[in-house]
Amino acid sequence: MAVRVTRNQGMLVLAIWLIVSGLAGLVAIPIPGVLMAGLALIAGVLILLGR
């Protein structure tokens, strides 16, 4: 079974944000809020632009 990586940059950044936020909740990794907010903002803008 092959894994397909999306070509949509917004969805890719959103997937990274979801994985990092999930890991931070499970393993209690101290991730700065600015980093998480930045990833969310970039993902939202790219999805709105359709990239």
Description:
The chain is mainly alpha-helical. The chain has one domain (9-49). It is 71% helix and 0% strand. It is built from 2 helices and no strands. It has helices at residues 9-27, 33-49. Helix 1 packs antiparallel against helix 2 (33-49). The protein starts with 8 loop residues before the first helix and ends with a helix. The model has no long low-confidence stretch (mean pLDDT 81).
Beta-strand content: under 5%
Q: Low-confidence segments, ≥5 residues, pLDDT <50?
A: none
* SSE succession: HH
- Count of individual domains: 1
What is the helical fraction, as a range of percent?
A: over 70%
Radius of gyration: 12 Å
Number-wise, the strands total 0
The chain-level mean pLDDT equals 81
Shape: flat
Q: Between the first and last Cα atoms, what is the distance in angstroms? A: 27 Å
- By secondary-structure content and strand pairing, the structural class works out as mainly alpha
Biggest beta sheet attributes: none
Instruction: Work out the helix count.
Output: 2
Question: How would you describe this structure in keywords?
Answer:
single chain; 51 residues; mainly alpha; 0% strand
Structural topology:
Layout: H1 9-27, H2 33-49
Question: Would you kindly provide a brief summary of this structure?
Answer:
By secondary structure, this protein is mainly alpha-helical. Helices cover 71% and strands 0% of the residues. The chain has one domain.
